[in-house]
Write a structure and sequence with these properties.
Four Helix Bundle (Hemerythrin (Met), subunit A); 2 strands; 68% helix; 231 residues; elongated; 2 domains; mainly alpha; two-stranded antiparallel sheet
Length: 231
């Protein structure tokens, strides 16, 4: 299993929170060292190293005597994906799932190799939350997104983290789409169970195949509504 230093893991987690998840807006002041080190479970020394790395990348700015702020230019980090243009278009669900089918199986494979024990436990817990939502008939949009986002983070690849807004759009659109929601929910529950089993065993090939099946099955169901979605 490939391992990264605690400092690099912290960099990846902070980058995901700021750029991938958008928890903080450009120009917004970040939490204090004490609060953030407590949330992430790392020492203040490790946190400072991670912040210095992010500052060098232009993600944050350290203002002496005032604190650490998200860079006003942080949105430019996503320009290569043209996400603003994507948001202006009507969601083309079939195309989004085609894109996911290309990279998410590989993300699942990497997560099996690179996830820490804590990250793996988090993935499995979030997968159980999705199952609980489906079983009780509750909206699973956020739970489903959190499950897939946890797998992306566990792959420890900065550029894959930038794809999380695309995953978010696809998950939200798929769950919200009518007509075959029950079928899609049942398929999701079955597919996630298989995926989680391979992740639990750190079987990269199995996880990749399970994710590919999940994407293909979702595409097959949603293809029935595609004409309506694209109008």
């Amino acid at each position: 299993m490939e391992k990264k230093s605690l400092s690099q893991q912290t960099v990846d987690r902070l980058y995901a929170m700021i750029v991938g998840e958008g928890r903080f807006a450009p120009g917004e002041k970040l939490p204090s060292e004490v609060a953030w080190s407590r949330e992430l479970g790392v020492s203040r020394t490790t946190l400072r190293e991670a912040v210095r790395t992010l500052a060098a990348r232009g993600v944050v700015e350290v203002r002496r005597g005032r604190g650490t702020f998200v860079s006003e230019r942080v949105g430019e980090l996503e320009e290569g994906l043209d996400l603003e243009a994507l948001e202006r278009l009507r969601v083309r669900l079939g195309e989004l799932f085609e894109l996911r089918a290309i990279f998410e199986p590989q993300i699942a494979r990497l997560a099996c190799r690179r996830a820490t024990e804590e990250e793996l436990a988090d993935i499995l817990a979030k997968g159980e939350e999705v199952e609980g939502c489906i079983r009780t008939g509750r909206d699973r949009t956020q739970a489903d997104w959190a499950f897939h986002a946890a797998i992306v983070r566990a792959a420890h690849n900065e550029f894959m983290v930038r794809l999380m807004p695309i995953i978010s759009q696809a998950v939200e659109a798929a769950v919200a789409a009518g007509g075959h929601g029950g079928t899609l929910a049942q398929d999701t529950q079955r597919d996630h169970a298989l995926l989680m089993e391979f992740l639990r065993r750190r079987d990269g090939e199995g996880a990749a195949c399970a994710m590919a099946i999940h994407m293909r099955r979702s595409m097959a169901v949603m293809e029935l509504d595609r004409c309506e979605l694209l109008r």
